[in-house]
C-alpha cells in the first residue's frame, strides 16, 4: 500500500511537471506568434513629418505633422498618396473631425489620378462627421453616409455586400451598425483588404464590406475635402499576394 501511494504521488508530480512544461511551451509559442505579428506592422506616419507620402493635388500647407498627429486643413480639395502601392493588407487608422459636417476618407487600391471632382479612382472608405447629413438647405441625407460607407469611386467598380436600403442597386455599401463618433472624438478603423474584397471594422466591430473590386493593387490616399480633419496611429500589415491580372493593378505614378 505504501509503495502504491508513493507511485501515485510520483505520477501526479510527474504529470504536473509535464503539464507545466506544456503550458510554458504553449505560452512561449503564443508569445513568439504575437511578437511576429507585431513586427509585421509598419507605421505609415512617423508623427514628425510627411515621410512616405506624396502630395497629389493639394498644397504645401494642407498637411502638417503636429505632436504625433497628422493635421489636414481640408483645402484645397484633393489627396496625398503613399509612396508605394499595396495589394493585400490590414490597415489601421484613427481619425477625427474638428468641425461639424466634416468630410474626408481614405482610398484603397487608388490610381492617385485626380478626376473632374479633384478626387481619384479607388475604393473609398468614408469618414464623415455625424452632422454631415443635415444640409444647410434643410434637407437630410441618407444616414448611411456617416458611418463608414464603402464604395468604388471614379472608374473603379465593385459589388456592395450591404447596399443602401434606399438604393438597393446603387454602388454604396452601408454599415450594418452605425458606430462612428462625432466632432472632436477619435474613431478607429481597421480595414482588411484582400483580393478585391474590403472588410471594415469601426471602433471595435466589423460592420461593412464590399467585394469584386476591379482594382486590386494601388496606392493609399488620404483625402482633404473642405474641412479640418486629423489622423494618427496609421499602420499597415502587408499580406501575401493573390492571383491578380495586370489590368487589376493601377499604373505606377511617374514623377518627371
Q: Could you give a quick summary of the protein structure above?
A:
The protein has 256 residues and is an alpha+beta fold. It has one helix spanning 2-39, and strands at 42-43, 53-55, 63-66, 69-72, 78-82, 89-97, 103-110, 122-128, 150-153, 159-160, 187-194, 197-202, 205-211, 219-224, 229-238. It is built from 1 helix and 15 strands.
Outline the secondary-structure elements:
Layout: H1 2-39, E1 42-43, E2 53-55, E3 63-66, E4 69-72, E5 78-82, E6 89-97, E7 103-110, E8 122-128, E9 150-153, E10 159-160, E11 187-194, E12 197-202, E13 205-211, E14 219-224, E15 229-238
Largest sheet, in brief, is: 9 strands, antiparallel
Write down the oligomeric state.
single chain
Strand content: 25-35%
Series of H and E elements: HEEEEEEEEEEEEEEE
Tally of individual domains = 2
Give the overall silhouette. Answer: globular
Q: State the end-to-end CA separation.
A: 91 Å
- SS content category: alpha+beta
Overall description:
It is a single chain. This protein is an alpha+beta fold and 256 residues long. The chain has two domains: 1-39; 43-242, Sandwich (Jelly Rolls), CATH 2.60.120. The chain has one helix at 2-39, and strands spanning 42-43, 53-55, 63-66, 69-72, 78-82, 89-97, 103-110, 122-128, 150-153, 159-160, 187-194, 197-202, 205-211, 219-224, 229-238. Strands 1, 3, 4, 6, 10, 11, 12, 13 and 15 form a nine-stranded antiparallel beta sheet that branches. Strands 2-5-14-7-8-9 form a six-stranded antiparallel beta sheet, with no helix packed on it. A hairpin with a 2-residue loop joins strand 12 and strand 13. The model is unreliable at 1-19 (pLDDT under 50).
Amino acid at each position: 500500500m505504501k509503495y502504491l501511494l508513493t507511485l501515485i504521488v510520483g505520477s501526479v508530480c510527474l504529470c504536473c511537471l509535464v503539464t507545466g512544461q506544456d503550458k510554458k511551451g504553449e505560452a512561449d509559442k503564443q508569445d513568439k506568434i504575437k511578437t511576429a505579428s507585431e513586427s509585421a506592422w509598419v507605421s505609415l506616419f512617423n508623427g514628425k513629418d510627411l515621410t512616405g507620402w506624396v502630395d497629389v493635388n493639394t498644397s504645401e500647407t494642407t498637411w502638417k505633422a503636429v505632436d504625433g498627429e497628422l493635421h489636414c486643413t481640408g483645402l484645397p480639395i484633393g489627396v496625398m498618396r503613399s509612396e508605394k502601392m499595396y495589394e493585400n493588407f490590414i490597415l489601421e487608422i484613427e481619425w477625427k473631425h474638428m468641425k461639424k459636417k466634416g468630410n474626408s476618407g481614405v482610398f484603397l487600391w487608388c490610381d492617385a489620378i485626380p478626376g473632374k471632382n479633384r478626387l481619384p479612382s479607388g475604393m473609398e472608405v468614408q469618414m464623415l462627421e455625424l452632422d454631415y447629413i443635415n444640409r444647410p438647405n434643410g434637407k437630410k441625407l441618407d444616414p448611411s453616409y456617416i458611418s463608414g460607407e464603402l464604395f468604388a469611386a471614379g472608374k473603379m467598380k465593385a459589388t456592395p455586400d450591404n447596399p443602401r436600403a434606399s438604393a438597393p442597386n446603387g454602388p454604396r455599401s452601408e454599415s450594418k451598425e452605425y458606430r462612428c463618433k462625432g466632432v472632436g472624438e477619435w474613431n478607429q478603423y481597421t480595414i482588411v483588404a484582400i483580393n478585391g474584397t474590403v472588410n471594415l471594422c469601426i471602433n471595435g466591430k466589423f460592420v461593412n464590406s464590399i467585394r469584386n473590386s476591379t482594382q486590386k493593387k494601388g496606392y493609399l490616399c488620404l483625402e482633404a475635402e473642405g474641412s479640418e480633419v486629423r489622423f494618427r496611429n496609421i499602420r499597415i500589415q502587408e499580406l501575401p499576394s493573390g492571383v491578380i491580372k495586370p489590368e487589376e493593378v493601377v499604373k505606377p505614378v511617374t514623377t518627371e
